[in-house]
Design a protein that fits this description.
The protein is of the alpha+beta class. The protein contains 21 helices and 30 strands.
Length: about 700
C-alpha cells in the first residue's frame, strides 16, 4: 500500500501545473504583444539608446617653430543641438516654463540673433514631424557654427540646459579645432584642416598628418539605471608634435618687408615670394607667399592662398645667368684656369643679331656696354654677353651645356612632394638629335642663347634659392629642410638631420670665382640696392617678361617676374634669400624692387643676429655700462644717476679762448661747439666720438683756420 494519499496529493499537483501553464501562456502572450503591437516603440528605443562602442578622437599634435613656439595647436570646439524626443519633452510644462529664459540667455551669448528668433527656431524643431510618426527633431541645430569651450560652458549653464544630458535633450558634438597663435604667418607652410571633416588638406598639416593625428580609441557604452557608463576599451593615442625650421621673427620680418614693397603704387604687385634659407643646414627659416585679391568692398589686399614658392614654375630670368657662367667656368671653356674671367665679349651697342632675332641688353637705347669681360657681363646682367659666351662654346654641343646645368644642381628635383604638397620639379629641356645629327624640331638655333639668360626653362623659386645656397656653401648643395624633429611629451622620438644632395656642384675654383662675381654684382653692379653698409652681400638680379602662353610675351599689358637671389654676409655666408615679385607694366626692376626687399630682410636678420651675440657675451651677473663721451656731461650724469648706475663722469676741461682745446673723446656736438666759439671752421668725417683733430690741442688759435675732426 502506497504511503502517499493520491486523493490528497494529485489535486495539489494539478493546481501547480495549471498555475505554471497560465504563467507560460502569459509570458508567450506578452512576448507576442511586444513583437507585434509594441515592435515600433522598442525598435526606436533600441536605435536611440543602444551604442555598444564609440570612437574617441585623440588630441592632434602641435606644430612648433624652430625655438618651439606654438604655430598650430588643437583646442576643443563644440556644435550644440537639441533632442526634442528626450524625457523632458514627455510633458511640455517644464519646457514651456523655461523657454523664454533659455531664449533670453541665448540672445546674450549670441547677440546676432534675437530672443524671438531663437524661440521660433526651437519651437520649429519641437514640432517638426518625423518619418516614424513622432513629433520633435532629434539633432536640431541651436547655433549653426562651432563655438569655443568658454561659450559652450555659458550655454550649458542656461536654465533647462543645465539638467542631465539625456533628460533635458541638450546635446553636443566635440571637435578638435586647429588654431594658429600667429595668425596667417607662414600659413601655406603650416597648413590647415577642413572644418567639416577635421582632415588636413595642405602644408605640413597634410604631409605629416599621420604623425600629428594620433590613433583613435574605443569606449564601450552601457546604460545602467537610466544613465550611460563609459567603459574604456582602447585608450586614444594623442598625436606627436613636430618642430619646424621656421623662425617666427624672421618669418614676420620677411612678410612685412615683402608686403611693404608689394603695396607701393609703382609696384602694385600681383604676387610676391620670399624664401630665407640657412646656408649650412638648408633649413627654411622663412617662406612667404603673397597673392593679391579683393575683399568684400573690392579693396585689394594680400593673402597666403597658394604656395607659389614651391609650385610657381616660370622662366626665372637673369638670376639664371649665374648658372650659365658657372657651367662655363666649371667646363673650363673660357680657359684652363676657372678663376680667369678676362675673356672679352664685344657687346657693341647692346644689340646682337642671333639667328634671325635680336638679343638686346637692358641699356641698348643708351649705347650698350661695348667691350666687357665675362665677370662684368654678369655684374651688369648683359644678355648679349652671357648668351654670346654660351652660344659660342656650346652651340654644337648643347647637350653638354644642359648636362652641366643638371650637374650644378639648378635642374635638380629636390623631391619635396612628400614634404610640402604642391612642389613642382624644374623643367629644363634636354636637346635630342635626329639620325642625321641635327637637333630635334623642338630645339631651335635660338633656344640655347635664350635659355642661357633664363628663358626656355621653368623653375620654381625654391630651386633657385637652393642653387644659390650651394654657391654660398662652397659648392655643397643641401636639401631644403622644413621639419627638424618629432616630439612626444617633450621627448624627441625622431630627428630629421640636414641632408646633402650634392657634395660639390662644381670645381672649388669655379665656386670661388662665382662668389666673387656675385659680390661685385652688389658692390659695383646692378644689385647695389640689395647691399648693406654694415656687411657684404652677394647676389644676382633678375627681370624677365612673363609668357602669356600662346599669346606670347607682349599680349596686352606686359607682366614681369622680378627677382633677386643672394646670400649674406658674403665673406662668411649664414643665410641665402630669394625675393620674387610679379607685376604688370613698367617700371620693373629686379634690383630696384626685389633687391630692396632683400636689403630689408638681410639687415633685419643680421641686426637680430648681432643683438643675440651681444647678449650672449654677458653673463647674468654682468652689466653693460654705457660709454660716456667727453664734453658737456650734465645730462648724461643725471640719466645715469636716475638709472642707479655708478659712473665717474669727470667735469669737462677748461681751456683759454685763444687756445685750441683737446676734443678727443667728445661727441660731434660738443667738439664743434668748443672749436667754433674760438673762431675755427670745422669739418667732420665719420660718426661717433672724436678720435683725431687736425688742429693740435694747445696751439694758439688762428681765427678762420680749418680743423678736421675724424670721428669713429
Amino acid at each position: 500500500m502506497s504511503k502517499f494519499d493520491n486523493e490528497k496529493v494529485m489535486p495539489r499537483y494539478m493546481a501547480i501545473a495549471v498555475v505554471l501553464t497560465l504563467i507560460g501562456i502569459a509570458v508567450i502572450g506578452k512576448a507576442l504583444y511586444i513583437m507585434t503591437a509594441k515592435k515600433q516603440y522598442w525598435t526606436e528605443v533600441a536605435n536611440r539608446l543602444k551604442r555598444d562602442s564609440v570612437s574617441v578622437k585623440p588630441t592632434r599634435g602641435n606644430i612648433l617653430s624652430c625655438d618651439e613656439q606654438l604655430m598650430a595647436t588643437s583646442i576643443p570646439e563644440y556644435k550644440i543641438f537639441m533632442d526634442f524626443q528626450a524625457s523632458a519633452f514627455e510633458k511640455d510644462s517644464l519646457w514651456l516654463d523655461k523657454l523664454d529664459s533659455v531664449c533670453d540667455g541665448l540672445n546674450k551669448i549670441f547677440p546676432q540673433r534675437s530672443a524671438e528668433e531663437f524661440k521660433a527656431l526651437l519651437e520649429e524643431g519641437r514640432h517638426k514631424p518625423q518619418k516614424n510618426g513622432s513629433v520633435g527633431a532629434r539633432w536640431w541645430n541651436i547655433w549653426p557654427r562651432r563655438i569655443d569651450y568658454n561659450t559652450f560652458m555659458e550655454v550649458k549653464a542656461l536654465p533647462f540646459f543645465n539638467m542631465p544630458r539625456y533628460k533635458s535633450g541638450f546635446c553636443w558634438e566635440e571637435f578638435n579645432s586647429r588654431r594658429r597663435p600667429f595668425g596667417s604667418l607662414a600659413q601655406r607652410v603650416i597648413g590647415g584642416l577642413m572644418l567639416a571633416s577635421d582632415s588636413a588638406y595642405f602644408g605640413l598639416e597634410m604631409s605629416y598628418d599621420s604623425i600629428l593625428r594620433g590613433t583613435p580609441g574605443i569606449t564601450g557604452r552601457r546604460k545602467v539605471l537610466n544613465k550611460y557608463m563609459n567603459i574604456p576599451v582602447t585608450m586614444p593615442i594623442d598625436g606627436c608634435d613636430i618642430v619646424t625650421t621656421i623662425d617666427v621673427n624672421m618669418q614676420d620680418l620677411a612678410e612685412r618687408a615683402l608686403l611693404d614693397e608689394l603695396k607701393l603704387p609703382e609696384v602694385n604687385g600681383e604676387m610676391g615670394v620670399a624664401i630665407l634659407m640657412e646656408v649650412a643646414t638648408g633649413d627654411i627659416k622663412a617662406m612667404v607667399n603673397m597673392i593679391r585679391t579683393n575683399d568684400k568692398e573690392g579693396n585689394p589686399h594680400y593673402i597666403e592662398a597658394v604656395n607659389s614658392a614651391m609650385s610657381y614654375r616660370c622662366e626665372p630670368g637673369s638670376v639664371f645667368k649665374t648658372a650659365s657662367i658657372l657651367v662655363a667656368l666649371d667646363d673650363q671653356v673660357l680657359g684652363k684656369n676657372p678663376k680667369d674671367t678676362s675673356y672679352i665679349i664685344h657687346t657693341g651697342s647692346g644689340v646682337m643679331p642671333m639667328y634671325g632675332r635680336e638679343m638686346k641688353d637692358h641699356n641698348w637705347r643708351r649705347g650698350g656696354y661695348g667691350d666687357i669681360n665675362v665677370a662684368r657681363s654678369l655684374e651688369v646682367s648683359s644678355n648679349v654677353g652671357v648668351s654670346h659666351v654660351i652660344d659660342k662654346f656650346y652651340h654644337n654641343e648643347a647637350e653638354r651645356y644642359v648636362k652641366g646645368l643638371y650637374r650644378i644642381g639648378i635642374g635638380e628635383d629636390l623631391k619635396l612632394q612628400n614634404v610640402l604638397p604642391g612642389y613642382r620639379a624644374p623643367i629644363i629641356r634636354m636637346p635630342k638629335r635626329k639620325k642625321n645629327g641635327r637637333y630635334d624640331d623642338n630645339w631651335y638655333a635660338t633656344t640655347l642663347p635664350w635659355m642661357s639668360i633664363g628663358y626656355e626653362t621653368q623653375i620654381a623659386p625654391i630651386n633657385t634659392v637652393t642653387f644659390y645656397n650651394a654657391i654660398a656653401n662652397n659648392g655643397t648643395m643641401m636639401r631644403p629642410r622644413f621639419v627638424k624633429k618629432v616630439m612626444k611629451n617633450g621627448v624627441t622620438i625622431k630627428e630629421f638631420p640636414p641632408e646633402v644632395i650634392k657634395n660639390s656642384i662644381a670645381r672649388p675654383e669655379a665656386i670661388k670665382t662665382i662668389q666673387t662675381i656675385l659680390e661685385h654684382v652688389v658692390s659695383q653692379g646692378l644689385g647695389r640696392k640689395a647691399g648693406s653698409k654694415l656687411f657684404k652681400v652677394a647676389g644676382k638680379t633678375g627681370t624677365a617678361q612673363v609668357s602669356q602662353g600662346k599669346s606670347g610675351y607682349k599680349s596686352g599689358t606686359v607682366q614681369y617676374w622680378l627677382s633677386f637671389a643672394g646670400f649674406f654676409p658674403a665673406d662668411n655666408p649664414l643665410y641665402t634669400c630669394i625675393v620674387c615679385i610679379k607685376k604688370s607694366g613698367l617700371p620693373a626692376s629686379g634690383g630696384g624692387m626685389s633687391g630692396v626687399v632683400f636689403h630689408h630682410i638681410s639687415e633685419g636678420v643680421m641686426a637680430r643676429h648681432l643683438k643675440l651675440s651681444i647678449d650672449d657675451a654677458h653673463d647674468e651677473r654682468s652689466e653693460a655700462i654705457p660709454q660716456v663721451k667727453e664734453g658737456d656731461t650734465k645730462s648724461a650724469s643725471m640719466i645715469l644717476n636716475k638709472l642707479g648706475i655708478n659712473k665717474d663722469v669727470s667735469a669737462p676741461k677748461k681751456y683759454a679762448k685763444n687756445v685750441t682745446p683737446d676734443v678727443t673723446g667728445m661727441g660731434a656736438k660738443d667738439a664743434v661747439y668748443q672749436m667754433e666759439i674760438r673762431g675755427l671752421k670745422v669739418k667732420l668725417h665719420g660718426r661717433g666720438k672724436v678720435k683725431r683733430q687736425s688742429y693740435p690741442a694747445g696751439k694758439a688759435v688762428v681765427k678762420g683756420a680749418e680743423c678736421v675732426l675724424t670721428l669713429e
